[in-house]
Amino acid sequence: MITKFINKIMRKTLLLTTLLLLSIFSIKAQDDLLDILNNEQAPETNYALATFKGARLINGHTIVTRKAKELEFIISHRFGRINTGIDEFFGLDGANVRFSLEYGITNDLTGGIGRNSFEKVYDGFLKYALLKQSTGKVNMPISVTAFSSVAIRTLDDPTFQADDFNSKVSYTHQLLLARKFSEKFSFQFAPTYVHRNKVLGNQENDIIALGIGGRMKLNTRLALNAEYYYRLTSEIDPTYKDSIGIGLEIETGGHVFHLNLANSRSMVERGFITETDGNFFKGDIHFGFNISRVF
Amino acid sequence: MENIEANNHKVLSIVDLSKGQVAVDLLIKAFEFEKKLMQEHFNENYMESEKFPKSTFKGTFTVPEALKSMTDGSYELDVKGDLTIHGVTKPIETKSTLTLKGGKLSGSLLFNVNVKEFDIKIPNVVVKNIAETVEVTANFDYEVYK
Hints:
B: mainly beta; Lipocalin
């Protein structure tokens, strides 16, 4: 009884204050008052709301930036392959973790740092919202965000002959273009350039990839996300595949949860875009999740 | 737990002192929250403001004789009318004050909105964090409408 009572007083009250902008009083209005007001409303720029809920779709970034002074903490896990069977408990025995902190420097500029246990990679990024989809006073069909990241692999890899600092560094630049087509469906196109200072064998240092992804809202809390990165590469090594992922997104207030199935192990752009080695259609699928909390 | 407050400075209102009618029209997206994420949730998850961009009120009141003859003073009025939020229209009754001073008319009112009555769903996981009843206060300064 007591706890119930405390809960009740601690409950938030949502207080909405409406203040004037322009108001009118009339002595002899003939028309319907609401019609008059409807005609008096000044045209507004109506920005598309929540094209995506998270700063990530599956592994890749979305156009979403954090607003000024918001801090986001993301914990992500990627497990082993599902098709390793019961011996590896369908991949759950082997987990990779990425932690990241992402901060809204301004409403349009976000910076973040992260650490991925897979290959012990540290990464940092900046993303900037260039354009925002809107209707009304300003008509803008798409949202555009520019993204750049640096990743440093610190795992000593014996197959790398040179292990100086430079050879551990890679860069990714993306232009994220998205449109919220309807209340339920958003689409993103992500031309991507990845540069790896050092590669193995006949891999290319520079790779262009075209990412596509979408979000389909199932209800106000649930959405289906999907992402695919198509590599425009002449690499003949069949080891590497295009990254494919699908996921369920659950949103509860300040938290966003992602439950993903993808053929990539890494959560860093260089890793999943250029070095995905799982064949999605043969069951080389990694279960994973992202938990995001905005403070 | 925290008090969540949002302000909307883009609200239009009109009163007709000869007929005792009042109307209010506002854009849901114009509510400004301190936390932008809250604002997004308010619009997307609760108010569904893409679908229901506006909230309106249309009401009537009995005009006191002194107000009709434009005598300065503060008049407490019982306003009855229809409030539309989230596409749902409900009759409400509230007390409102109209103040006439030196030819300038201003009004204020306070009322409570029960979120459930307007078909706004609060999921169980956050039900402890969000009030079932929202207090709304409004202040208006009126000019003569031409």
